[in-house]
Structures
1.
Amino acid sequence: MSGPSPNPRRPEGTYDVLPVPHGSQPEERLAGWLALESAVRSVCARYGYQEIRPPLFEHTSLFAKSTGEVTDIVEKEMFTVPSRGEGDSYTFRPEITPGAIRLLIENRLFQQKAFWKVWYWGPNFRYERPQKGRYRQFVQMGVEAVGSHDPLLDVETMAVYAEILRLVGVMKFDVRINTMGCPACRGGYREALRAFLEPHLASYCGNCRRRFERNVLRVLDCKVPEDARRNESAPAIADQVCAGCRAHFEAVQAGLRSVGLAFAVDKKIVRGLDYYTRTVYEFASPLLGAQNALVGGGRYDTLVASMGGPDVGAVGFAAGAERVLLAMRESGRPAAGLPPPDFFAVAADEAARGEIFLAAQTMRAAGLSGDLDYERRSVKAQMRAANKTGARYAVFIGAEELARRAVKIKRMEGGDEGVMSLDEAIRVIKGETR
RNA sequence: GUACCCGUAGCUCAGCCUGGUUAGAGCACCUGGUUGUGGCCCAGGGUGUCGCGGGUUCAAAUCCCGUCGGGUACCCCA
């Protein structure tokens, strides 16, 4: 009654990564992913960060307690599934920081040493309406330096990210930083902000009135032009933090200047997650659309202890890989693809098909990369295929070569040919001869 | 959840406003251009439920309604 069943479709807000150029979405091209991931890997290694791989889902309570009960993420964006017969439900991670800290604590890594620098890369899940640079399954990479209050680490994490961006050719980005104070001084600021807002509260947007009740700081984040303009004259937390926080913030700024990383202090930055203290920062790209945040990060000096770990400071960031891919495309530097294969094996006639397959196997076993035709196509068609793969050499076996127990190889660029034993051919293709 | 835009070949799109010959272009793909050899060139090949369903009409890719899917933006963030 309902006709043919519709073709299978990917869920809303997801994308496929393909081995070939397709359409115009950069996040769908494998080459960009490989370039970005290898840049991340090499920079993190150079800075002494070690990779960790927490699971894709955690107990829901982990996020409720660390990310924050009243954040948008926890309130309406989590993919949560019941855990059969057990108390807590499971949630596919909307961010990785809570899992990373959980991993350090649960595995008693702080018993081994008090200070850890780790990085991660992998998919996250948030139930939102997708748009440019925003997906329901998206990849984040991030670093966490856990176990120190040193402001130099705030600087270092930013330097790590700046270096990753430059390595993939994204040279244009704006760095903005702010300080959120610490538990000791934030309470006083909240009161001051409430006192400022209260008289004009009626003229603020509905969202802001809600924020006023639940998380005043977020009022400063409002994008409604009128509200934003009024907020200009609001007291800034950076001006009211305690001496310790002020000294920390100044040390961070001095550090950024010393490493030559341009930045601007933006008193309106208020990160959306509950756990941030002191330094918060964002890198934004002028090349992207509305979702222009390339990274969000900052210090979270109370989170580790609140999760049952030692009372230590920590700082880190999380970056959206799809947005970096977008920025890479806008920066006009195409990602280099994989290196071309070494050979394409051609059966010059039907009788040689078995032999050509064995020759290919031998070459692969010797460390060469290459392919052959599986459709009994003409030599011409096989050569077209060879050309299309970009192979450096074509390797022929036909009646002549069978008779001489040899192969003929042809250098695709230039076209010169030669007949020799397979072992010799392997040496030539490897560049070990001449 | 709301608003606006879009859905024709593998890809990018034209055709739609002003319904009417066999639904097109470029790229991609396939075959051939004589003996076992690519690219360039030449000759040929359409590979398509015009998203889906219904309506109007003698006639619908084209007009109307609905629906599904996608995109962008608001919100929020990576």
2.
Amino acid sequence: MTIRPVPAQIDLPAMERSILDFWREHKIFEASTAARESSQPWTFYEGPPTANGMPGTHHIEARVFKDVFPRYQTMKGKYVTRKAGWDCHGLPVEIAVEKELGFSGKGDIEKYGIAAFNEKCRDSVTRHVGAFTSMTNRMGFWVDFDQAYWTMAPEYVESVWWSLKEIWKKGLLVQDHRVAPYCPRCGTGLSDHELAQGYETVTDPSVYVRFPVTSGELADLGAALLVWTTTPWTLVSNTAIAVHPEVDYVVAEVTAEDAKEILIVAQPLLSALTGEVKALKIVKGRDLERVTYQRPLDLIDIPDSHFVVLADYVTTEDGTGLVHQSPAFGADDLAVCRAYGLPVVNPIAPNGTFLSEVPLVGGLFFKDADKTLVKELKSRGVLYKHQPYEHPYPHCWRCHTALIYYAQPSWYIRTTSIKDELIRENNRTNWYPETIKTGRYGDWLNNNIDWALSRNRYWGTPLPIWRCEEKHEVCVDSLKELGDLAGKELSKLDPHRPFVDDITFPCATCGKEMVRVPEVIDCWYDSGAMPFAQWGYPHKPGSVEKFKAAYPADFICEAIDQTRGWFYTLMTIGTLVFDQSSYKNVLCLGHILDKDGRKMSKHLGNVIEPIALMDQHGADAVRWYMLAAGSPWSARRVGHDAISDVVRKTLLTYWNTISFHTLYAQSSNFDISQIPAVKDRSMMDHWILSELNSLIAEVDQAYSEFDSHSAGRVLARFIDDLSNWYVRRSRRRFWDGDLAALGTLHECLVTLTQLLSPMVPFITEHVWQELVKPADAAAADSVHLTDFPIADKDQVNLELNAQVALTRRIVELGRAARAESAIKIRQPLQRALISAPGWAKLPKDMRGQIADELNVIDLADIADADGDLVNISIKANFKTLGAKYGKSVQEISKAIATADATPLVKQLRRSGLAKVGDWEIELSDLVVTEVPKSGWMVASHEGESVALDLALTQSLIDAGNVREVIRFIQERRKSDGFEISDRIKVRWNVDPAIAAAIADAAAHISDEVLALEFTHDQTLPAGENDLGISVVLVKT
RNA sequence: GGGCCCAUAGCUCAGCCUGGUUAGAGCGCUUCCCUGAUAAGGAAGAGGUCGGUGGUUCAAGUCCACCUGGGCCCA
């Protein structure tokens, strides 16, 4: 066959570009799924990215993991379709367009026209999708863009409508007036999961304000209720003060700066008072109920109010234990005040400013009014204390405006009513890592609150509810149903604002005109509806079958911030509509951090652009780093150095081994049909095949558990074993064109390439085309069209693995001794003595390798050496002794340390038992180290030792010189540019003192350097090296 | 304020579930070796209070409690 050598150096990014062309031209992705069409499906759902900006490095992270497991499952024989998706609607897109157009709020949008504005939003989405597509292609994420779902597509919107109607029919989609977080700039309420994304730490004024009591005996005392708040602007609409019924409140006489006053605070919070404090009396919170007070500000009219109310939610953790109530701006406040029949007064307009008719603060933005109000409180003498207070406060996650908790009408999905079902579905879900299930996500479900679904915005799925003056409601599930109601053909209508707003029809109940409610829905609902809406279910022909075949998903994967986002909406909508969660396995990724462990943000200037990263290091490099350099679920740092390190270590070693193999495969006309049967191969071959088959099982297991980190670790270890032990130890066999060696290496590389291919699809494809296809006409056209390797347990030989490990440890010790001795490895030594458990059983082959690696002629067991030559030292093996004797181990250890080691070990070896002090021990209770007494260079570690005989004889020195000459000629062959198989003629000269020894070894040297002639030419000038070697090489 | 995760060499990470007395690997640094994969490979050295404190135990990086710092989430 025709394996051609590949260069040892590789330009990864350039290679990747040609592989991308190859995949495109040969439609490999399409072929990989088409081949499995009749197999069992393994369903993947793509969480749609919001196409409102350029893709970042965190997008690569998620996409690497979304790619590797579908590739693996495809190789395992599953049918894995990968439908791309784009999240098109929502505030992020609107904000981006507003910025583009220079708008500053909803007024500008309405002036501009909703139709035109939405058209701009549509354009913006389309534009950004391009950037995502090219990044996705570049990184080798196989996903089908041709059939991508777009949440703004009419069929998608209709599918969402259908699901909303299902929920509405169950009575779970309702309008309610509630206090909810609201962005005054965007003019819309935010859902709980949006709120979660926008906490920022701010410094607010925190004020302690006196509310003088105006009724009862406390009024006679001149007492004042002391209230603490961090939102002075809500004092304008103060309606009541809440206390906890069971808490003790202290009526305290406070003396500070010669002034006396009487203040009321909760007992645990007495420390809020400054100065000398004397408790006059203590009252229960419930006894304060309906006590009236003088409010601190009287800017607006609030009738029938201003007294103390009782509320269980009041805490004594901070403040004063007295909580001022402003029902328009707090959910708890609203509930409590409603119970007391108090009015809801709201002096703030939807744009966040005080109504113009309010004195003092009219027209001011609510947060900006704090300063003015604090000044006013001070001048009225009711301000007790004032200090800055740093705390997290919710902000709009996109525009960063401080949110206001604001009473407003809003549409809700009653998710609280399916809480039990959600918990049931969560219990059936496999979370990776597992802790999320009962931890972060489980907690969230347990504290579930209703989903605030509606948004008072423009670019979103319109809420498909029409209503008449009499509040009769109809929910529409499709354009067809809408057309039937309106008596028009509407199937071609764009189901967005403002077009759907224009459709009206008479109410079936009262005959009055029905108009659509003005809201659009939370775009998180759109993405959570993708399991069915991506097919246009149930309206579109064929969608029912497609949906049923692909629900629920076997695999979804996003970063951990999606626990309250997509992971939640997906499960919730699935459970609401189908009484079943939409996914079975969910992989939850850690976040991407910069090289110093900080979050990447434009603000810090530490953002790494994904395309640049891949152009510099290669997509495989970035992928390998993301997958293997840390656990999927822990946060990972990304930096250039970190990536180039892992590339050099693993990918280039792998590539080097490929390059090595192609070199010798070509020079020996390697033909896979000539590979000997496994049983006829050498022990080294058996060993690496044993490791290979263990590896297959380990990688298979790791991939199946979404643990790319473990897979990467065992793969990297195998690459190291293969390159730095198997190939290194078998080099001579490759030079000789040994078919067993070439065949074994080839088989290892083929399988390794397959195992690596889900993680690093480019370089493995390149290898497949360069190494596998040329050698095997029957091989698949692409590595990505192959079946995942199956481990052959019969080839796994744990004893052999252990023996090779021992061999390698002995070699390491020998090298250490060599280095210590300062005698170059090139210089042969007569013998080495070895002491190690297991040494006696080590096969001859491996002993030969040790001798070879250490360049030693004889190896012997230290035990066989003259008894006087060896020192035995022993220490306690705590693990076995501890199990047997527990507490006494320290004493035994001392006894062992002072025992005479040599006779003790001899006795143990003879009889198996011996006594140390009062304790009976076995040989395994000791760690025995044997070292020669003198004249030897010794290295030992954990009971294994190697000793080198440093005595040099003339024949050893001669042998060393011969080896030096061989090395010199080999180097010259290379620098002169000969092919490894070229035969040469050699003329040589060396220092006369060693010439005879070189001449004697002429046959051996000729053989090693492929010389047909080897002539001593004394006319050559001496070379500038230790032995004065000079050579002239001529190609024959 | 609450929950979860993390903390081991300058850096990236193993080891912890199942406790055992010299805590490992790779990268980087210094010195040396090897040379038919060579922009590879090997050895040695420097570099660790295993975040801190306490507890359990004959024995703690490993088990337990508390604390500190970082990340994420919630309020």
3.
Amino acid sequence: MATKKITSLEVAKLAGVSQSAVSRVFTPGASVSKKTNEKVRRAASKLGYRPNILARSLITGKSRIIGLVVSHLDNYFYPEALELLSNALQKKGYHVLVFMASKTSGNIDDVVDEILDYQVDSIILASVAMSSNLATRCTSAGVPVILFNRTQDDNRLSSVTSDNFAGGKKAARFLIAGGHKRIAYIAGWEGASTQRDREAGFVKELKEHGISLYAYEVGNFVRDEARQAARKMFTADEIPDAVFVASDDMSFAVMDVIRFELGLKIPEQVSVVGYDDVPVASWPAYDLTTVRQPANRMVAETISIILECIEDKETKPRRIQIDGPLVIRGSARISNK
Amino acid sequence: MATKKITSLEVAKLAGVSQSAVSRVFTPGASVSKKTNEKVRRAASKLGYRPNILARSLITGKSRIIGLVVSHLDNYFYPEALELLSNALQKKGYHVLVFMASKTSGNIDDVVDEILDYQVDSIILASVAMSSNLATRCTSAGVPVILFNRTQDDNRLSSVTSDNFAGGKKAARFLIAGGHKRIAYIAGWEGASTQRDREAGFVKELKEHGISLYAYEVGNFVRDEARQAARKMFTADEIPDAVFVASDDMSFAVMDVIRFELGLKIPEQVSVVGYDDVPVASWPAYDLTTVRQPANRMVAETISIILECIEDKETKPRRIQIDGPLVIRGSARISNK
DNA sequence: TTATTTCTTGCATACGAATGCAAATACTTC
DNA sequence: GAAGTATTTGCATTCGTATGCAAGAAATAA
């Protein structure tokens, strides 16, 4: 197996210049004459030379690798975000190293340690939290950490989320305006700031209208648990006439239970409102009214924060909240019946 | 910003040994005495030392990074596969560097070049092809390439797919047994071997029963195009009574058109069979009969090939086809009406 | 105890590219 | 053409770790 390694030295030899010259040709902004540049490029492409990013990283201290920790790829909001993120970073010359955080155990710290081993330029935690201890490690290692779709009470961490509190309020306002009287909520995982904020906003708005939650169950952002929650909620004596579900993903499960297991009509008997606006929400089979998380804008913000941090170490952490609209579709009544 | 870099040298100093000793402690299988080992480990954890993978790679020639090229994260088969892949590799001490191949332009070669820059130990192309020229580059760089869910006529590339031909046959056999008389097909992108094999198997089986395709449209594995295809196919004079769609993803779009735009009943008036068995297929709203691609077994095979190639350069490329069952649900009639 | 073998250890070097510095070359200007 | 400035270039070193080699320590055999 002719495992050839073409190094800058060989290119230099062929081009009749020094290794430094070759390096400079491939270093944007370095001082090289037109002639040398051409000679080197010709030799390089002849040999199929490409700079070794790893070797370069060793010196520059920049790996052009961004570590991404994800745990919920089965929630279709994340594949979309991943795709946007990866594409955008790719355009900027960075690439994404993926780390799965198992949903069960809270071993995020171990995972982040592994990430640091790769000398990543930055870490994105998608819907995942980290220990304060580890945040210290990252900070002192000079690796900026950005929480995506999650916040945390640690002022060293930047975060980008949708405005979950406002989103919760929007959902409530909409259901109230629709004349619903028995309004319920199916919660996500209580450890998630997104869940807490959505609930808080929702409950707050209800309260401001003198309404209190008619029913409450926890789905933990897991479809099966959402199903259970729905079964429990909608087999009671007098069932809710509206339910706000903390994620689209759970909403689909809830709708399926309501329609196919319990034979109820949506939205005639029960209105359902979700959160995320993943692609499936717009499919006619669900046609889900939901609060949109503008993935593209969230990603854009994330990336701008990352690049800023990488270029200028002194940037202080920011917390971005992006407002998302309520997307009105057919899963919830609009006027009072 | 106290950007401290803890190196093996500092650990060595603290532990009162040489840098080599530290290195050996962190190199599995190296010769170190129990005493030294302890001293070093104590010092290391005190300083929070962790070996720099990049520097290590420079010497060993192994980065423990696997490059993954994806292009269809919106088809929910891929997030699932990505999750399985990443998890399994993580357990083996490898990690996945993600590269998005834009669906539109065929710039795969550029992408793979970028991957090679990172000195990856192997490349997985998920549902993506590469030029023969580039395959040469990879081979000569000693980087094994594995096609996932795609084959290609290049005997230097390994591939792992489901048995698409057999899957197509199963779909046909099932529809025939269900007494369908006007059987149609909505194809994926013709450049994909998966598409071609599924179609070939399907048509072959029909032919063996003396049946020919009643209608044919192309959906290119894109939901919108599948919708168009369905509209065209099901507004004809005498519509098909069954359609095999080349992917679940397209199937959902097709079912939505059939039900909600055209007001037809599934499976009473039209039977639909898909391919993939993504999670959504089992949701009651679709309840799609489909040929399963066993993602977990496909991933397991992929990984075993990768590890084998990395350890033993002389392994020759393999082509694995994994048989998947037809999962019978409610979207297709079983008995002749 | 001494000779022999097996483990450990440190030294020095290598991996591939980037960069400060000083020497060399090219370009201006008078 | 000389003097001065701006631009290129090569040399040597550096990044953090792994590893062949030879010397030293420990264990075993005689």
4.
Amino acid sequence: MKEGPDIARVAALIGDPARANMLTALMSGKALTVSELAEEAGVTIQTASSHLSKLDEGGLLRPRKQGRHKYFGLASDDVAHVLEGLMGLAAGSGHLRKRIGPRDAELRQARVCYNHLAGDKGTQLFDSLIAQEYLRHDGEHIVLTKAGAAFAERFEIDIDGLRKARAPLCRECLDWSERRSHLAGSLGRAFLGRFEELSWAKRDQKTRVVTFSAKGAKAFDGMFPVSR
Amino acid sequence: MKEGPDIARVAALIGDPARANMLTALMSGKALTVSELAEEAGVTIQTASSHLSKLDEGGLLRPRKQGRHKYFGLASDDVAHVLEGLMGLAAGSGHLRKRIGPRDAELRQARVCYNHLAGDKGTQLFDSLIAQEYLRHDGEHIVLTKAGAAFAERFEIDIDGLRKARAPLCRECLDWSERRSHLAGSLGRAFLGRFEELSWAKRDQKTRVVTFSAKGAKAFDGMFPVSR
DNA sequence: CCAATACTTCGATTATTGTCGAAGGATGAA
DNA sequence: TTCATCCTTCGACAATAATCGAAGTATTGG
């Protein structure tokens, strides 16, 4: 029996139910403590601690200590991306269509993907920003146009501030429920934050579901129209 | 202990070394027999058979029987995509940079990803086709322009024939070694096939490495220029 | 038809790994 | 300082799953 490729090692880390539950909980982009993650997984704190150590060593998580509390977040966008991909496979978007439950429909409509908006609403945002030429493809990158920067500033997003930070401003993130791109990067995160500030959308504290109010959805559709 | 999300089930399937070896072997896009896959994994035929049954039931593989032979291929692009993502994580592109071995460098340069060209050369192809407006983003899709169709026909790719088939013509596939898109879909596959016909590039029979001859690389660079 | 080849299924064995109770170390608040 | 809380580590146990020999079924070629 040959030694497996490294993908076996990474996949095996995700392939344990307790660890998968914890990773899924972290898809919201929040960092959670060992105790919180133990609860998410439904195991004792000592078991959770052991699992988290493995995920850390495997490069999937990033720990941060604050006094007696130790917080874990996903290590990177890439981890989130792979988890999204696995969700797509698990949902049978590969080639068999599974029955969709109510929660699934909500997640498909709008959900948090590592702090930015994903799902139908997420891809609508991206498509509209492209269509209105606020974003454009520049060969290998997505860049914010001048018109886009002005638009964002009018929407009270501090573009200069975002540009000063280390995080990339715009990134494409392939949305596995929609099979198209949604906007990641600090701008994507800023948009979601703004939708919350305006009470257009509300993040479910327990899941990744993002719920748009009727008023918020109307405002969103007005501001981010797409030809569909 | 809570029951795990479905991603645990899918990931666990990939997380076994024997199964991971088989999936990796199938990334070339070829379909292999049970015996061949047993050899790839370094297990007996009966063990391989058992594993393949699980991968089939899990929706990751698609079997096809031909007389006494049973061939397995990856179920879809999506499966290939997730495997690529895991490779990126395993390579530490997440946040830790692993030492790159000789084989890694070759795979990064040019490799087969489910029958189309990936790696540096793959993203170059995509970027150039976009830059030359042979391909363009149409909101959610990549479409071949008229100019692009003409270009492809001049390159002796039967666009009408491809359009008649069920497979999508153009698809973006996120390239994990390059972190940008490369061209998937039937057009992507046709391009790789053509490069082989012209002896510009040669597929390694044992691995996914695609090697461009000096002459081929020169011709490729000439036909698919990018501003880099 | 028979022999060879390809694959499937069964069952026993073994190794691995998740789990939790117990114990201990670190931190913060009273 | 003491106590409560958070987390880590250790060790024992139990469950799971990969593995292969054996046996059986299906297909093909001579």
